[in-house]
Amino acid sequence: MTPPPADDRRLVPAFLATTGRARPSRNTLDRLTVLHGATDPATVTGLRPEETRLLELLRGGALSLAEAAAHLRLPVSVVKVLVADLVDGGRLMARAPIPDAELPERQILEKVLNGLRTLKSF
Amino acid sequence: MTEIPVALTVTLSVGTAAAVALALLLARSMREARRLRQRSATAEKELQDALRHQAALSARTQAVEAEVRHLAANRVPDLAASLAHPHVPVRGLLDPGFRGTELDRSLTAVMDQVVDAVTKERLRMDSAAQSAMRGSTTTIQALLYQLQSKLQAMQERYDDPFVAEDLLTADFLNEQALRRIQATAIVCGAWPGLTRQDSHLGDMVLGAMSRLVGYERVQVTNQLRDPLGVVARAVEPVVVALAELIANALHYSHPELPVAVTIQQGNRGASIIVDDAGVGMHAEEMERAQRLMSGQDPMLLTELGDPPRTGFASVGQLVRQYGFAASVEASPYGGVRAIVHIPGEPLLTLMDVEKQPMSPMTPPPRGSSSGAPPIPPALPGDTTSQRPPRQPEPAPAHGETVQLGTVPERPAADTTATTGTAPSPDRVPAPDGDLPRRRRRRAVPEAALDQPFGGAAEAPPQPRTQPAAPSAPPAQSSPEESAERWAAFQRGTASGRAAADEGADDWPHPSQGRHAAPPHAADPHADPRSAEGNPQE
Predict the structure, then answer these.
(1) For a Cys staple, B134 with which of A105, B188, B206, B280, CB 3.0–4.6 Å?
(2) Pair (B359, B213) in one structural domain
(3) Total domains, chain A
(4) Is residue A6 part of a domain?
(5) pTM of the model
(6) Is B370 exposed, middle or buried (0-12, 13-18, 19+ CB in 10 A)?
(7) What would the pLDDT profile of B16-33 be if each residue is shown by its tens digit?
(8) Are residues B68 and B206 in the same domain?
(9) Contact B165 A52 (CB under 8 A)
(10) Does A30 sit within 8 Å of B168, measured CB to CB?
């Protein structure tokens, strides 16, 4: 009996990171929330391994939540819970992403365009 | 005168002759009579003997009949029962006088025939049942794996917290179902159904506990010196065995007691020790578990109870097929200690943490640099004083028993925090007959002050002061690069905002944001998606 070729099926499922929770304690987080570490993970005890890893990732600067999730190889929804817990504990700072500038409304643009055309026609 | 004597003489002689003849006759008849008397006496005796013999014979016939009836009515049913339940005694001969006779031998032959027939039939039935189970479990298992992939993809895709939480719950339920079906399949002689890649031991322990209700109670301590992994073919079997042993520990201990799992590295292999402080097993159960887990005896489904208790039996099957070892004994914590020993020679391998990092949930090995790199120089004199408290050897001190029940924090966290910095030279064991050792990178502690990521990070650790090290063409952005980019971006945004505030005019603010944001902001959130292959929205 020859076993089939190995596949890279995950061994450790994501729900272990948060014991099954995916509802963060704050709903202000999204994929582009920017995270900075507020504490050095080496100085804190009692962190779970995944929290330590997240803080280590952020030691060099800031990362977006989506990037942190990709580096941890965890779903974004789970990382949100981790982040929310760490923010609650004061070990992490999360900042809303810079919003896209509001685009002017289409009607205004059309009016301006019309105005320019009328200018040009003079 | 002469006449008379002659006559007398004649007469006398005749009389004498007659007397002699008579005497002879008499003697003869007396002898005859004696002989007849003797003969009649012997005849009578023979008759008596014959009668006695006949009585004995008929008694014996009755006894034989009774013996045969006893065989049919009692001994064969006893035997049949004892084949199913070994503690049922089988009755012997009714009349001990038959012991050793031809009859005894014949009856024993009958019994042997019965045993033979029943055993054969039972094996046939059992293997039929096993193959039927195997057929259905294989299909179900394949379906559950598909479901697992689907659920995993959905977890990546859906951000909504409620949906995500339901997906995690579904994933967990699926893991439990998989574990059950897999154990049943293995007991029925199937292979574990999955070949994985070489995997870290720590990841395997976490994978095992993730299949169990109550996994929150499992406290994993990683005492490995090297990043040890198990070779691909044995990964899933070991995980299944661990899952069954941890499940046993969880099931037989109070729902608030922790279950301590310790991963240890020995000279000739690695051991995973599962301790619970639960109700324990009495000697008979322990003996049964040992027998099942030794994998020596052929195992029958019908012997596993109803519903079949597949745990130890599946461990036994895997032990036999894949060459690791499992045993149970009384735990110093009061419950049961189960030990899985994985021999180094055929089954262990050293993992490349950069190519295949551990799962973030796995406590890093105490030798790894990912624990606490930034403070190495402070400790060399200090290590001896630090060693004793974190040395849960197989025979723990009394204080640890208390700790098992009461301390809520995970021992793994502080273990890594203190042990990562221990200098390596003092713990390099004699290399002869040892596991292959990976040379530790000595550069890490020196560079660690500005090295933000441990050895477990994906990026090869290089001094950051050298821009674009020649050896490493970054195929994908490492976390530190992205982090740096974001930091620069934020600095830029901050200074831009400051400039805008100086301008006392609110209008430039959003427009500046618009100019500043796209080139940077587009980058990071495109990055993980492309890396994960995850088309969101």
Answers:
(1) B188
(2) yes
(3) 1
(4) no
(5) 0.63
(6) buried
(7) 999 999 999 999 999 999
(8) no
(9) no
(10) no
